[in-house]
Amino acid sequence: MKLIRTEDAVGQVLCHDITQIIPGVTKDAVFRKGHVVTKEDIPVLLSVGKEHLYVWEKQEGMLHENEAAEILCAICKGQNMERTQAKEGKIELIAACDGLLKVDSSRLKAVNSLGEMIIATRHGNFPVKKGDKLAGTRIIPLVIQEEKMEAAKKAAGEEPILDLKPFARKKAAILTTGSEVYHGRIQDQFTPVILEKLAEYDTEVIGSQILDDKHEQITQAILDFIAKGAELIICTGGMSVDPDDRTPLAIKNTGADVVSYGAPVLPGAMFMLAYYEGRIPIAGLPGCVMYAKRTIFDLVLPRLMADDRIHREDLQVLGQGGLCLSCPVCTFPNCGFGKGE
């Protein structure tokens, strides 16, 4: 940086904040570090006692914080996102639609490990609403080496670190299993819970059915609903290892590819997920979904609604953070539940 007369500073970039103090009225910066001085700014600067200013001196191989911020933003910004203007080396990313936020944590860590720049995001694999803030980026110094920003681009790779998958409109079917419900010994309390959770998304429930604990009937009902156009099958009940619980076998017998039977999440350990013909998810929900406020279903449903394919490894990493503490006042998703590695 260099020191120049204030009258000669038009077009120059400030290297420090300029503070105005009016006793009993204000003490605040009238111009921030990084501000480009205009002709109209000169009287204001002189009025606060600044006859000389430190300004940025352009050097080969160095980038101003706002120039570097543009590069950092490009590294992060995926589809369905809006951005703020660069200010003081900062740019924020905003959701342009409702959807599922995806974050590549390994590449995020690689960029943040370079130093002198930061990317701070929401946790990935959780739903967001249009207008929600997704991430903030910041260049720490006023100027940064151009080669460091090239290193950031290399660490980030070709694709943006963030992505926002919009939720799809889906046709869903609900199968409630259990002889006690089928024979009318107890009331079906599962279906209302599932309907309430599906109502948070653009979902058309094309049918629901109560079935006995006979795996052949359950398998056929699943296939029948798929034939009618169901794009999401939710099976409730009969998910434990008791001899009478036949839902896992029924799901397997459809010919669907089983991702996992069991997940390191409490409540929700007996959860099952399979894909029929590689595209239609079939979810087997354990009994806890009926009575616990938050379960494994709350963690996987947003991903299913965004057509975000779930793999076995995606469930395995939920072990860390997979324990719901059943807080007296639930703040999910603004808590640690489901926020794994």
| Name of the CATH homologous superfamily of the largest domain | MoaB/Mog-like domain
N-end to C-end Cα span: 42 Å
Work out the helicity level. 25-40%
- Number of beta-strand segments: 19
Strand order of the largest sheet: 15-14-16-19-18-17
Strand proportion: 25-35%
- According to CATH, the fold-level topology of the largest domain is Molybdenum Cofactor Biosythetic Enzyme, Chain A
**CATH architecture call of the largest domain:** 3-Layer(aba) Sandwich
Task: Give start-end ranges of low-pLDDT stretches.
Answer: none
The CATH class of the largest domain is identified as Alpha Beta
Tell me the domain tally: 3
The main pleated sheet reads as: 6 strands, mixed
Indicate the mean pLDDT.
91
EC number: 2.10.1.1
Keywords: Magnesium, Metal-binding, Molybdenum, Molybdenum cofactor biosynthesis, Transferase
Domain MoaB/Mog: 173-306
Function: Catalyzes the insertion of molybdate into adenylated molybdopterin with the concomitant release of AMP.
